Automatic annotation (TrEMBL):
Protein name listed in UniProt: Spermidine synthase
Source lineage: Bacteria, Bacillati, Actinomycetota, Actinomycetes, Propionibacteriales
Keyword Hydrolase: no
InterPro entries named among the record's database cross-references: SAM-dependent_MTases_sf
Keyword field: Polyamine biosynthesis
Amino acid sequence: MPTLPGFLPAQRAGLGTSLRELWLWTVDGLRRQQRHTSRSPRLHRPHDVREALLVEYVEVARAESERGELVLRERREEGGPAFLELRANGVFVMDNAEFTSEEALASAALELVDTPRQVLVGGMGLGFTMHRVLADPRVERCTVVEIEEALVGWMRDGTVPHGQTMLADERAHVVVADVTDALAEAAPTSYDLVLLDVDNGPSFLVHESNARLYESDSLGDARRVLRPGGALVVWSMDRAPELLGAMAGVFDDVAAQPRAVRLQERDEEYWLLTGRVR
């Protein structure tokens, strides 16, 4: 059973949707967690040992696929609100406590294109990137490509409470597929904007197989499906110079723009890697 670094299991009761895990936050555990989360700004990171609280994790849903285990669970902090958390093979993916980076990706990408009528988003997460894209009245259709069928199901059936509301927008179109394959199979000049929020860039992969998404063949497919004036946008935790080099060999204009993001009351820097088609 996956654990956060430095956390000690205090109690387990039941299985499946009734699973409950209590973790006692120790001083040493908090310090190790802080070191771990320095590479993953989306993770919850207490600022001070005095903030240590008893935290209860309640499993909401679990699914297995060829890529491993996907778990949706609720995080309840003593004296605070409950948040929904998504994990893949024990690795934190995102939660609904902090989604400013997802919104920042979509907002910055939409600014790059004059008429983003057709938008493709690689990776659903908990739907916040898609939701921000659909908030733009210029968008006529937002296609979201998500490889995990179970996650799409949780969004559709209300397991993720806000999922049905987000997907009720008639402009939202969800495809269960690997985004690399979806790009390869898409018709030429199908999209005005392609956003990749599958990982936190090529150096921070959710699954090792995602590495091919950042290689020349997939980048070439991304360019092929873009219309003149369109753009590919990759959200990354670092500047990813190798990816930028590969993009430069495919796109007409390539840029890396640092973006300040406020996460958990602290300032972080992400990178917006863009490839444009003239």
